[in-house]
Write a structure and sequence with these properties.
There is one protein chain. With 632 residues, this protein is α+β, with helices and mostly antiparallel strands. It folds into three domains: 203 residues, no CATH class; 171 residues, Glycosyltransferase, CATH 1.50.10; 181 residues, no CATH class. The protein contains 17 helices and 13 strands. A six-stranded mixed β-sheet has the order 9-10-11-12-3-13. Helix 8 runs parallel beside helix 10. The longest helix has 25 residues.
Length: 632
């Protein structure tokens, strides 16, 4: 580890309480030492699965041919030009072939010999934003990430999810698909390099490989036996890796574990039936149902307190559900299907008039499948996928809808079920707490009619209260930090609002921007000062120094009342109760903050534009609509 790496780790450690810093340091050191011993013991072994025989080369899903999407452009993909996580368009070409561990060199060379002569290799180990490259001849467990400022492991991980392969498949780009699969396999022996570090990414890659192959087979792709044999070996390696490295033993079993389950399902759906694959199927189906009930509330919202992670996790549940239905792996319980339907309702309710969702909590731009054409905060793809499961094509029609309809193979599901979020009111407590107003902001929309005929929607388990219409959206964040109290994807945003009028964002949550490349920026976007929330000097309602993915629920925010025109909530993150009341009345929006500790006489401030409101509340953190990106 370089001196720069050590200095970066040291800067992070001093931000933590001593006992946490020591525990993290010992754990990190133990993992590295253990991995180094494994590296010494395995360097002479081949980690590839054997090339499958002709008899084993049949997929199990059976997608029919789909009409090609004429809007899909493959020029950048075939030129190996990628724009990921704010990188801008970058050609990712390997200057030289990667070093391969001794035991894997022969097999890697055999795979590379199958490539077309005019194919240019991709540098799969490169963070093409910073220029840092991980070694491909080292076991994944020996490699570090989050260890150097500005270096982002998510960049090679995002590319190696191979989510562009289904796009190639829809366009019928068989040769480029074949070459990229072989190139990836030759450069990334199972268990080696940066792209086998995280099981979630392995699982997402497995699903994208299988779906792309199925889409091409639906077009009667005539792949040679050598390629099909290597493809099966690659899927077999993915399935075994996922099954042996499930992410279910950490402090939080969340979206990573869901990805593992779903990726395993796609892999075994492709592999020939065997006692092992049948065992994997039974396990994955059981765990999918368990995790749907554990990670999504009764009203369909995800338990991680993030609207973007809601999309990612819901996508995984929906695609796994469709696969189970189509292949008749099991009969899913009615409550599971109703929960899936309510996932769509939550997404619809948090979507603003500009077709972007309210950006609550973290957003790492994560997707399970990506078919292009959507802005990061446009979650219509999820709605389309769920519409495909239920056959209600009037709800949404997207590329996802068409593919899901093929996956479910005509299986019918009845209805979406009863909506439980609209018109859910919370009556004020019988013993009302008196508090003193300290600030009052009056917002006057250009057209008062925009405040009429609003739907009131409540998601108390998630912690979001909304008034909405085709022209108006106002949300108040008030509730748990998610992940059963871990708060790994939550921000200090209690009692913060988002406001959109006639498609214009008056107040918007700024997003997340970055994770490990910059601890300072990570904390800046998590801070209360980045949100339209009540503030008390420079204080934070919850500490930001417990780790990049840890936020205690010190605020203990709770909604006191919610009606068709009023919200009142309180949190205790500053050591005393801090109240916020929002009223929609007489063509105005009144936002009143207050405390119980002292009396004040606030001077109401009236604003009539988004610019005035942002200036009044000093909201100047650059808006990040997706990971690694900012907008002016």
């Amino acid at each position: 580890m370089s001196a720069m790496s050590l200095s970066h780790l040291a800067r992070y450690a001093v931000r933590l309480p001593p006992h946490i810093a020591v525990a993290k340091g010992l754990s990190y050191a133990g993992r590295i030492v253990s991995a180094q011993f494994r590296q010494l013991a395995s360097s002479g072994r081949c980690s590839y699965r054997p090339r499958s025989s002709t008899d084993d080369m049949k997929g199990g899903i059976g997608l029919a041919s789909l009409e090609r999407d004429v809007f899909i452009q493959t020029k950048d993909i075939t030129a190996h030009r990628f724009d990921l996580l704010g990188s801008g368009p970058v050609v990712v070409a390997a200057d030289a072939l990667p070093e391969i561990s001794p035991g894997n060199q022969t097999r890697s060379a055999e795979i590379r010999a199958l490539l077309d002569d005019d194919y240019t290799a991709i540098d799969w180990q490169l963070d093409f934003k910073s220029g840092h490259r991980w070694r491909s001849d080292r076991l994944s467990g020996t490699l570090a990430y989050g260890h150097q400022p500005g270096v982002d492991v998510k960049v090679p991980w995002e590319l190696a999810r191979l989510q562009h392969l289904p796009v190639l498949a829809l366009a019928g780009a068989k040769a480029e698909f074949r070459n990229q699969v072989l190139d990836f396999s030759a450069a990334n022996p199972p268990g080696y390099g940066v792209n086998w570090m995280c099981t979630m990414d392995v699982a997402i890659r497995a699903a994208n490989l299988v779906l792309a192959m199925e889409l091409l087979d639906g077009q009667d792709a005539d792949f040679d036996d050598d390629f099909r044999g290597e493809f099966h070996a690659l899927i077999d390696a993915h399935a075994r890796f996922i099954a042996n490295n499930l992410e279910d033993d950490g402090p939080v079993r969340g979206n990573h574990y869901l990805a593992d389950i779903t990726g395993l399902l796609f892999a075994v759906a492709w592999l020939p039936p065997s006692p092992k694959t049948e065992k994997w199927v039974a396990f994955a189906v059981r765990e999918l149902v368990n995790e749907t009930g554990r990670q999504f509330t009764n009203d369909g919202a995800n338990f991680e307190a993030s609207t973007s992670y809601h999309r990612l996790s819901a996508e995984m549940v929906v695609w796994a559900t469709a696969l189970i239905m189509g292949l008749k792996f099991a009969i899913l319980p009615d409550w599971h299907m109703q929960r899936v339907a309510k996932m769509a309702e939550f997404t619809r309710h948090v979507t603003k008039p500009n077709d972007r969702v309210a950006q609550i909590g973290d957003n790492d731009s994560g997707r399970f499948f990506k078919f292009g054409g959507e802005a990061c905060l446009d979650h219509s793809g999820l709605l389309g996928a769920i519409a495909g499961v239920f056959g209600d094509l009037s709800f949404a029609t997207t590329t996802e809808t068409r593919i899901i309809r093929e996956l479910v193979a005509g299986t019918q599901v009845s209805g979406y079920g009863e909506n439980t979020a609209e018109g859910r009111f919370i009556e004020p407590p019988l013993e009302k707490q008196d508090w003193w107003e300290t600030t009052e902001t009056i917002i006057t929309p250009p057209d008062k009619l925009v405040l009429e005929n609003l739907d009131a929607v409540a998601y108390p388990d998630f912690g979001l209260y909304i008034w909405r219409s085709d022209r108006f959206f106002l949300s108040v964040r008030c509730g748990p930090v998610g992940q059963n109290g871990n708060g790994g994807h939550a921000h200090n945003d209690q009692l913060a609002i988002e406001l959109n009028i006639d498609g214009e964002d008056w107040i918007v949550d700024p997003g997340s921007y970055l994770y490990t490349p910059s601890t300072d920026k990570r904390d800046a976007y998590r801070s209360v000062h980045a949100h339209a929330a009540p503030k008390l000097g420079n204080k934070e309602p919850s500490r930001l120094d417990l780790g990049l993915f840890r936020l205690q629920d010190n605020a203990r925010a709770r909604c006191l009342s919610f009606t068709e025109d009023t919200f009142e909530g309180v949190h205790e993150g500053y050591g005393e109760p801090l109240y916020r009341r929002v009223e929609i009345t007489d063509g105005q929006i009144r936002i009143i903050d207050g405390v119980t500790s002292h009396q004040a006489t606030p001077q109401p401030v009236t604003v009539a534009s988004a610019a005035e409101l942002k200036e009044l509340w000093s909201l100047d953190v650059a808006f990040s609509p997706g990971y690694g990106t900012v907008e002016d």
